[in-house]
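User: Okay, second chain of the day. Same drill as before: sequence in, structure tokens out.
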Amino acid sequence: MTTDPAGTVDSDGREAEDDVVRVGILDDHAVIVDGIAFWIAENAPDVRVVLRATRWLDLIRDPGFPVDIVLMDLQLVEQVSIESRIRACRAAGTEVVVVTALDDELSRARSLSAGAAAFLPKTLPVREIIDVVRRVAAGERMPVQPGSRGRAGRAASVTTARAEAQVADAALSAAEQRAVTLYVQGLSTAEVARRMDVGYETAKTYLRRARDKYAKVGRPAGRRAELIRRAAEDGMLE
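Assistant: Same drill. Structure tokens below.
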């Protein structure tokens, strides 16, 4: 591929690869996932769907994850809370746009407080949703309304992903689990140490031991995205 001096368009006038927004779609209704993906393919050459999923674990296990932006349904059959899903994506470097039929103040506050870049109702046309995707890719965010953090709260019911994952037990200690849980939410090793009230080297050791234990049972966790997958599989994201 050749680019113009600005590095944005090749000789055939197509968008350069670096300018394409890589998108994932997570919704437990396959018809919605496929419908959005089809519209994007037909109408948005600057956006590419690189993964589609109807289950949370399928999203984070997909080889295409992490992506630039995930269009994420608020409610899934797995019932892993929206806060944990958003924080896990953000920790992996992925922005989240929540697209939901449940367009109420509490759900909006929970999503935005957890770090979602936008909260959109499913009643919007797909073209408007993709316009928001473009703005988020350009660095725009919807601000959290004053006082929303106090209203956010936790999900009323959370089930663990581990029951469905059927994966080998890495047998992490309580301290290792705590360190991993904090780390996959986007905290640095130093911040994990402060939260756990331990030294930096101790926190680093907890994370290293956790990664080693996962590796020994055939579950790679060397990269943050891989560690997020392992934490989700073991029900640490609630």
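Residues 36 and 42 are 10 Å apart (CA to CA).

User: Thanks, on to the next one.
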